[in-house]
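Exercise: predict the fold of this chain.
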Amino acid sequence: MNTPTFSADIHKGKVLISSLFLFALGLAAAYMAYRGPDPNSLKAMLRNPAIFYPMTVLGALLFLGLGLLGMAKLRGGSPLRAGPEGLDLSGDIKIRWNDIAGIERYTDFTTPSLNGYKVLLKDADRFLAAHRDHRLYQRMLSTHSTVSTPVVVYTNSLQMDHDRFQRVVAHYLATGAG
């Protein structure tokens, strides 16, 4: 029996460049904190130590942390998989095919550069109730109220063949797998 599968990988180039940029910002902020405030600066926040040190240290920690988080993402597995058991989103959320009514292309109305897929569920309220303890529950609720489905998969940072993904999804939705 033919069981098509699909797996999308992180676009390592985009994530690496973004992570290196954040890491460079963190190093610049750390250097500024090391150098200290400038008493001749026209900006009060660069002159006053009470503002300067918390701002630069927090900036350094934030940017270095985000850069390291991005580097850690490069080592992760496939964030989007489709197979006989259903959709697997980063191994964190699994949706069986018999719970899915359909999948359609989606472009975020707030940021047109964000695009991906809306996963239309047969019973979104049951899905939300089953994931009440999930760390992204509040985001799923918000997405459900604005987009009318709790699950939107953004594919901007993924390397994927959209046609193949749609064929695999269509195959399993047509066969009623799950």
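Check your answer against the key: The mean pLDDT is 88.
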